[in-house]
């Protein structure tokens, strides 16, 4: 076997191992999300008489009307959607959604069967909506992070998005959710139930945004200067960052300038200002970057060229 074949074989093995790790991680995250979801619904939503978001709202109302455990309705309504989605959407997306639906539905049935504790209160129902919103937001956020969904309305949204890529599906789903929440009044006959559902929806969306937001924040700076070479040295050697140089011309003066674009760590902004004090004719403006991917800073043991 040649050296190239050995390398190729080792590379393929590494890729397979990476894919297996990702699959196992995705499975564990899906099970975690299903546990969190089932607990949020059983402990906070069902005893406090308000609906969560999406298809689960219909499931919750059906449980209230019929007295049949919501887990069964969750399976009945979601499985046809998942089967249909199998032929329309990414297979990994559908598999994780199916696992989530099965695990969460079974757990909802189990929690009721073993009489798992619930948060039952007449005076503090707002707390139930707050904690349900946080937990359901975490559930949805972690599923979105692995490229999957919690089933129901998310699958419908994904199928609509595939056919109409330029439609704001999130807004459509939000409107549908609000309509279902409004309709829940005729099941619970309590305006407070509607308000609690709206609170839960708002908090859930905030929690999802928090989960989805990249935690690696940075600052993008744009430096307009006549000293690009000197500032380049300061940025690369002092701040240990790369930069992009763009030649420009001032519209008022007509003079040639350069624009240096760089992405720095948040705590380095004051250090940059100290560097630029040496160049009083330099103009800089900056914005916060909410997500950064890749290594945008030289490591301590790397040589700056």
Write the layout of secondary structure elements.
Elements: H1 3-48, H2 55-66, H3 70-86, H4 91-113, H5 125-145, H6 153-163, H7 169-183, H8 185-188, H9 191-212, E1 218-225, H10 228-238, E2 244-249, E3 256-264, H11 269-276, E4 283-289
Antiparallel strand pairs: 1-3, 1-4, 2-3
Helix pairs in contact: 1-4, 1-5, 2-3, 3-4, 5-9
Please supply descriptive tags for the structure shown above.
four-stranded antiparallel sheet; Alpha-Beta Plaits; 305 residues; 2 domains; alpha+beta
Radius of gyration computed on alpha carbons = 26 Å
Strand content: 5-15%
Put simply, the count of helices is 11
Question: What order do the SSEs take from the amino end to the carboxyl end, as H and E?
Answer: HHHHHHHHHEHEEHE
Largest sheet: 4 strands, antiparallel
Q: How far do the termini sit from each other?
A: 39 Å
The tally of beta strands, per DSSP, is: 4
- Mean of all residue-level pLDDT scores: 83
Structural class based on helices, strands and sheet pairing? alpha+beta
Placed side by side, the strands forming the largest sheet appear as 2-3-1-4
Helix content estimate: 55-70%
Number of domains: 2
Parts with pLDDT < 50 across at least 5 consecutive residues: none
What does this structure look like?
The structure is a single chain. The protein is of the alpha+beta class and 305 residues long. The chain folds into two domains: 3-212, no CATH class; 218-289, 2-Layer Sandwich (Alpha-Beta Plaits), CATH 3.30.70.120. The protein is 62% helix and 10% strand. The chain contains eleven helices and four strands; from the N terminus they run αααααααααβαββαβ. The protein has a four-stranded antiparallel β-sheet with strand order 2-3-1-4, covered by helices on one side. A hairpin with a 6-residue loop joins strand 2 (244-249) and strand 3. Helix 1 runs antiparallel to helix 5 (125-145) and helix 2 (55-66) runs antiparallel to helix 3. The protein is elongated and about 75 Å long. The chain starts with a helix and ends in a 16-residue tail after the last strand. The relative contact order is 0.11. The model has no long low-confidence stretch (mean pLDDT 83).
């Amino acid at each position: 076997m040649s050296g190239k074949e050995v390398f190729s074989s080792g590379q393929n093995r590494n890729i397979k191992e990476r894919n297996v790790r990702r699959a196992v991680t995705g499975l564990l995250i899906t099970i975690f999300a299903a546990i969190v979801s089932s607990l949020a619904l059983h402990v906070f939503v069902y005893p406090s008489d308000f609906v969560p978001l999406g298809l689960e709202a219909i499931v919750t109302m059906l449980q209230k009307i019929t007295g049949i455990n919501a887990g069964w309705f969750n399976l009945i309504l979601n499985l046809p959607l998942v089967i249909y989605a199998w032929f329309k959407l990414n297979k990994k997306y559908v598999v994780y959604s199916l696992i989530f639906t099965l695990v969460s539905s079974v757990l909802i049935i189990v929690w009721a069967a073993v009489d798992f504790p619930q948060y039952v209160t007449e005076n503090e129902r707002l707390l139930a909506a707050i904690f349900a919103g946080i937990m359901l937001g975490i559930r949805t956020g972690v599923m979105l992070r692995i490229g999957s969904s919690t089933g129901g309305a998310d699958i419908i949204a994904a199928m609509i998005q595939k056919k109409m890529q330029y439609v704001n599906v999130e807004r459509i789903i939000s409107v549908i959710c609000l309509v279902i929440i409004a309709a829940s009044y005729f099941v619970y006959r309590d305006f407070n139930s509607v308000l609690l559902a709206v609170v839960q929806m708002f908090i859930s969306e905030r929690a999802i945004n928090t989960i989805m937001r990249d935690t690696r924040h940075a600052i993008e700076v744009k430096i307009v200067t006549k000293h690009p070479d000197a500032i380049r040295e300061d940025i690369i050697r002092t701040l240990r960052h790369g930069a992009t140089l763009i030649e420009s011309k001032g519209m008022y003066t007509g003079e040639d300038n350069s624009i240096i674009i760089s992405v720095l760590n948040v705590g380095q902004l004051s250090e940059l200002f100290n560097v630029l004090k040496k160049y009083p004719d330099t103009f800089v403006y900056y914005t916060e970057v909410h997500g950064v991917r890749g290594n945008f800073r030289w490591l301590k043991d790397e040589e700056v060229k």
